[in-house]
Write a structure and sequence with these properties.
Elements: E1 9-13, H1 15-43, H2 55-75, E2 83-87, E3 101-107, H3 115-126, E4 135-141, H4 146-169, H5 176-181, H6 189-215, E5 232-236, E6 245-250, H7 261-276, E7 281-286, E8 290-291, H8 296-304, E9 313-317, E10 321-322, H9 336-347, E11 359-362, H10 377-384, H11 388-393, H12 411-420, H13 444-454, E12 458-461, E13 469-471, H14 477-495, H15 501-504, H16 511-521, H17 527-542, H18 555-576, H19 581-610, H20 627-634, H21 644-671, H22 674-690, H23 692-699, H24 709-731
Parallel strand pairs: 3-4, 3-7, 4-6, 9-12, 10-13
Antiparallel strand pairs: 1-2, 5-6, 7-11, 8-13, 9-11
Length: 732
């Protein structure tokens, strides 16, 4: 009785960090005001006074500095009130009082998402430390793959041995692949004998999957077309009380109907699960993000079952961690800043943004604002569609059709699930616009979480010392740039929509939370200052045109302070969150690379979609391991095998900076203009230091991951042409 009154979680406000952050914001803001004053004072001078100065480069640089200052200001909202949390799952009520959970796992293409990896995620979800009768696992197969269905049936058979083994011996890692790849300490002869037996069953399970892959063709020949197939729902293993329910869902896809990518698949799972199990809470997982700790569900319930915060709590977010990240992490695949700085800062406000995976969400939070007691059924159908059974599921006293006697479905109920998974069900409804996961952006999680917070919901960030989930991060440049472009396109979709955070958010949520959302939405705009700083000062350095104050001018200290203040604050944050100087260098480098490519192309893609020049697209990140690319990644070498539009801008920028730095330095030494040109020399040198891997890939590397000589040659021509034309324009 005493334990029931104890708190199930504690929030720790990091007051010292907040104080330091606020002081830094104050000092840095004063410096930015001084910078803006310096630039404005130039433009306010008389035409005669600034006759010898190049107005256009100054104007471009000022625009870049304003955008960068604006983005920096938005970024500081994460640092206003960072918090951490501690949970006490042992204080939860007895198992019989715990609510049910539906687990949603989405997969699309077995060629890019190996079936064995997906099944390990499925099995790890089934092995969560939670009452099995209250756990239901749904797999959305958007490719309509016979191999995925077969893999689920085999996974179910193996789970019949794996789950009892985990429960009996308290196995701390529910993913069989990870568990059997580690060395287990001797724990008695009986345990070791049982471990060897289960491991042998796992090897047989893998062998059957490999045979199935060969049967269905090279890495999978699906019987049905991934873009044109009818709905298919199959309950696997119904009637097993000691096993979680496993359900295969392949929604209908027709070329004539938009399918809305992952958001559409999740909405189908939301509807189908409503009439099968209708659990009040959902766990959303990517197909490669397996459960690394069986207690994540209980940790999430420490928040969801707290009567003080539960009425407004929409979801509990866990960080995404990755098992394949190297120590150097040259591509910043670990997303350190996102999950060690941004999420902790957001948790001190109204809560973290919705990430694409690793969160426990309340089902009712996805129903929009249309559920009210006594609401007219016709109005509900206008929002949720024509299914009477689904409308019934919206009631709190609804009994789903799933039972444990082995007779899961009647023919009528099966038809109902197929209706809910049909491609035309959402026509003339609110699905994707106000109900479920929203469709207005390919980054459905960000927009859906934003509208939830605007409706008054809150969220919580839980970051235990042991990663609750582990996935596969990108380990080559092509995947990093493709993924980054998709993210930037999705974010900018929201920035230029009716949901733009600085317009739609401030009256509906806390101002700081709205600013955090705005920073993410406008994040692609970083391409403007990076491109400005990457070409304009260098062009002017080559032509002896100063853009910054003289070293002897007191304003020179302002520019130097802003530059060093930003770099040092970033370095301190990296070190305090467990990173190293190398981590800081890699993050600086990747920020430049992404700004030059992903941010630019993502912004262009969003604008083109907005004006109707192209349709939305979603490229799945390849989860298949490439040994050659993996070797380069582990060695800390960039793999430059990507498309020309992705790599060429980087090489052009590097060649332009190399030429400007060397020729400009010769000019400065010859003329003795150090006082005027020093800051431009330093800026160009900094960019070259950050570009060393690209320079190495252009010059001394001979492996397959080097920059192709054709790209280097093309980039050289473009860079020389730009410098020539730019010099002519500046002289005129």
């Amino acid at each position: 009785m005493e334990g029931s009154t104890l708190p199930r979680h504690i929030r720790h406000v990091r007051k010292s960090s907040a104080t330091i952050n606020r002081f830094h914001v104050f000092i840095h803001s004063i410096a930015l005001i001084a910078l803006i004053y310096y630039r404005l004072s130039f433009f306010l001078q008389s035409a005669e006074t600034r006759a010898d100065a190049a107005v256009l480069p100054w104007l471009i640089m000022f625009a870049g500095e304003l955008v960068l200052s604006f983005m920096w200001l938005l970024d500081q909202s994460y640092r206003w009130r960072p918090v951490t949390r501690t949970v006490f799952p042992e204080r939860l009520p007895e198992d019989k009082h715990l609510p049910a959970i539906d687990v949603f796992i989405c997969t699309v293409d077995p060629k890019k998402e190996p079936t064995l990896e997906v099944m390990n995620t499925v099995i790890s979800a089934m092995a969560l430390d939670y009452p099995p009768e209250k756990l239901h696992v749904y797999v959305s197969d958007d490719g309509g793959s016979s191999l995925t269905l077969y893999g689920m049936k085999e996974a179910w058979e193996f789970a019949r041995s794996w789950l009892p083994f985990c429960r009996k011996h308290g196995i701390k890692n529910p993913c069989p692949k990870v568990y059997f790849s580690s060395v287990e300490e001797e724990n008695g002869t009986e345990f070791m004998a049982e471990r060897r037996r289960v491991q042998m069953e796992y090897e047989m399970f893998k062998a059957r999957l490999r045979a199935a892959i060969e049967k269905y063709g090279s890495r999978n020949e699906s019987i049905r077309s991934s873009g044109d197939h009818p709905p298919s729902i199959e309950v696997i293993g119904g009637g097993q009380v000691e096993m979680p329910l496993l359900v295969y869902v392949s929604r209908e896809k027709r070329p004539s109907h938009p399918h809305h990518f992952k958001a559409g698949a999740l909405n189908v799972l939301l509807r189908v699960s409503s009439i099968i199990s209708n659990s009040p809470y959902l766990l959303i997982l990517d197909c490669d993000m397996f459960c690394n700790d069986p207690t994540s569900a209980r940790k999430a319930m420490c928040f969801h079952l707290d009567p003080k915060i539960s009425p407004t709590l929409a979801f509990v977010l866990f960080p995404q961690r990755f098992q394949n990240i190297s120590k150097s992490d040259i591509y910043d695949s670990g997303l350190r800043c996102t999950f060690s700085v941004m999420c902790e800062g957001l948790d001190g406000l109204q809560g973290p943004v919705l990430s694409g995976t690793c969160f426990y969400i309340k089902r009712v939070a996805l129903h929009g604002s249309f559920i009210q007691n006594g609401k007219d059924i016709l109005k509900l159908k206008e929002s949720f569609g024509s299914s009477n059974e689904f409308i019934k599921s919206l009631r709190q006293n609804y009994e789903p059709c799933m039972n444990r006697d082995g007779n899961c479905f009647s023919a009528m109920q099966l038809r109902e699930t197929q209706l809910l998974a049909s491609s035309s069900y959402e026509n003339q409804t609110k699905w994707g616009t106000e109900v479920g996961f929203l469709y207005q952006s390919v980054l459905e999680d960000y927009l859906t979480g934003f509208t939830m917070h605007c409706r008054g919901w809150t969220s919580v960030y839980c970051n235990p010392s042991k990663p609750q989930f582990l996935g596969s991060g990108v380990t080559n440049m092509n995947d990093m740039l493709v993924q980054g472009t998709r993210w930037m396109s999705g974010l900018f979709d929201v920035a230029i929509s009716n949901y733009s955070p600085l317009v739609y958010g401030p009256l509906r949520m806390s101002i700081l939370e709205s600013i955090c959302y705005a920073h993410l939405a406008y994040f692609p705009l970083y391409f403007i200052p990076v491109w400005c700083f990457g070409i304009i000062p260098q062009l002017c350095l080559l032509n002896g045109i100063p853009l910054y104050p003289k070293v002897s001018d007191s304003f020179c200290m302002i520019f130097a302070f802003i530059f060093l203040s930003s770099l040092s604050k970033h370095l301190v944050e990296v070190l305090l969150t467990g990173g190293s100087f190398q981590t800081w260098t890699n993050e600086q480098r990747i920020w430049i690379i992404r700004s030059v490519t992903c941010h630019l192309y993502g912004s262009m893609d969003a604008i083109m979609k907005k004006i109707g020049m192209r349709e939305a697209s979603f490229l799945t990140t390849d989860k298949v391991m490439d040994d050659e690319k993996e070797k380069l990644y582990q060695m800390g070498k960039f793999d430059f095998r990507t498309s020309t539009p992705m790599i060429a801008p980087l090489v052009i920028l590097v060649i332009l900076n190399m030429a400007s730095f060397m020729l400009g330095l010769v000019r400065v030494i010859a003329t003795g203009d150090w006082d005027k040109m020093l800051l431009q020399v330093v800026l160009s040198f900094y960019i070259l230091i950050m570009s060393l891997p690209i320079i190495e890939g252009m010059t001394i590397r001979k492996d397959k991951g080097r920059v192709p000589s054709s790209i280097t040659g093309l980039s050289f021509v473009v860079a020389v042409a730009f410098l020539t034309v730019g010099s002519i324009v500046l002289k005129d």
